[in-house]
């Protein structure tokens, strides 16, 4: 093989010599050496790739851990809010169901008598007081000659009145010291307030 172009070195090479190929190396030895160099280069490439991949995996693992911690912190903050909202929703639902059930109950003599007895039991002074009922409830008690309308022994004068302020099934008791509100809507509101606090 003949070289026909000149090689120009900038800056000029000093003490450059032409090295003849080593005749003692056979073609197979040269190919084996090339294969060794190629294998070594391949192994270096694999090692470098694994090293880069390990670095990327560590970085991704750190990012994933940070994301996971963020999600968990967010859930820790959200769970109490969800619980509070569910409790409030359940309380509201229970009260609405109770209100619907109570409002759909037919008014009976026993129901009105129980409301009057419950309210009278809260009166501390037993001299004189007034009991206010819905006009239909008072008429129903009078029609049935309810024993609630009769004063108990040892009690003072109990006067029964009809009132437009009292809804069906409830009553108001007025004493010298104040009033006892045993109306159904008042009882439901007291339950609502106690559950809300």
Question: Would you give an account of this structure?
Answer:
By secondary structure, the chain is α+β, with helices and mostly antiparallel strands. It has 2 domains: 44-104; 106-196, ATP synthase, E subunit, C-terminal (hypothetical protein PF0899 fold), CATH 3.30.2320. The chain is built from 4 helices and 4 strands, in the order ααβαβββα. It has a 4-stranded mixed sheet. β3 (171-174) and β4 form a beta hairpin. α1 runs antiparallel to α4 (184-196). The longest helix is centred in the N-terminal third of the chain and has 78 residues, at 27-104. The protein is rod-shaped, with a radius of gyration of 49 Å.
- Rg value: 49 Å
**Sheet with the most strands?**
4 strands, mixed
CATH structural fold name of the largest domain:
hypothetical protein PF0899 fold
Which oligomeric form is depicted?
single chain
Structural class estimated from helices and strands? alpha+beta
Helical proportion, percent range: 55-70%
Succession of helices and strands: HHEHEEEH
Spatial strand sequence of the major β-sheet: 2-1-3-4
Overall pLDDT, averaged? 83
Give the total of beta strands: 4
The rough form would be described as: rod-shaped
CATH class (first level) name of the largest domain: Alpha Beta
Number of helices: 4
Q: Can you name the CATH architecture of the largest domain?
A: 2-Layer Sandwich
Instruction: Give the percentage of residues in beta strands.
Output: 5-15%
């Amino acid at each position: 093989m003949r070289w026909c172009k000149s090689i120009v070195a900038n800056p000029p090479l000093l003490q450059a010599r032409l090295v003849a190929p080593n005749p003692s190396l056979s073609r197979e030895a040269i190919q084996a050496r090339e294969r060794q160099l190629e294998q070594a280069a391949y192994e270096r490439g694999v090692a470098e790739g694994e090293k880069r991949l390990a670095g990327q995996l560590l970085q991704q693992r750190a990012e994933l851990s940070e994301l996971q911690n963020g999600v968990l912190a967010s859930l820790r903050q959200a769970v109490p809010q969800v619980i509070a909202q569910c409790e409030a929703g359940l309380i509201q639902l229970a009260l609405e169901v109770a209100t619907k059930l109570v409002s759909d109950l037919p008014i009976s003599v026993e129901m009105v008598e129980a409301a009057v007895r419950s309210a009278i039991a809260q009166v501390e002074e037993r001299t004189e007081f007034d009991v206010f009922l819905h006009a239909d409830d008072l008429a129903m008690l009078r029609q049935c000659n309810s024993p609630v309308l009769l004063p108990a022994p040892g009690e003072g004068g109990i006067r029964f009145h009809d009132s437009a302020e009292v809804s069906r099934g409830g009553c108001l008791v007025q004493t010298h010291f104040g009033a006892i509100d045993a109306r159904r809507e008042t009882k439901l509101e007291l339950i609502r307030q106690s559950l809300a606090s």
